């Protein structure tokens, strides 16, 4: 599993936006968790970590590998 730190999520809409962005990244098998209170997103699969970070940033949130 790959865990990312995500900053800027404040509501359920934010979580959904991050989830959809991650699901679209090649290599993601499943988005396990997106939690605004913990500031994390967890995915399964073998995607490029930089692609995950870029997808989240394109939605307007800050992200980095945990």
UniProtKB/TrEMBL annotation:
InterPro entries: Heavy-metal-associated_CS (IPR017969), HMA_dom (IPR006121), HMA_dom_sf (IPR036163). Residues 1-64 form the HMA domain. The keyword Metal-binding applies. Keywords: Metal-binding. GO terms for molecular function: metal ion binding. The keyword Thylakoid does not apply. SUPFAM superfamilies: HMA, heavy metal-associated domain. CDD domains: HMA. Gene3D superfamilies: 3.30.70.100. This is Copper chaperone. The lineage of its organism: Bacteria, Pseudomonadati, Pseudomonadota, Gammaproteobacteria, Chromatiales.
């Amino acid at each position: 599993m790959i865990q990312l730190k995500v900053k800027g999520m404040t509501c359920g809409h934010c979580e959904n936006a991050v989830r959809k962005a991650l699901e679209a990244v090649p290599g993601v098998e499943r988005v396990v968790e997106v939690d605004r209170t913990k500031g994390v997103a967890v995915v399964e699969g073998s995607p490029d970590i930089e692609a995950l970070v870029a997808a989240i940033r394109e939605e307007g949130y800050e992200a980095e590998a945990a």
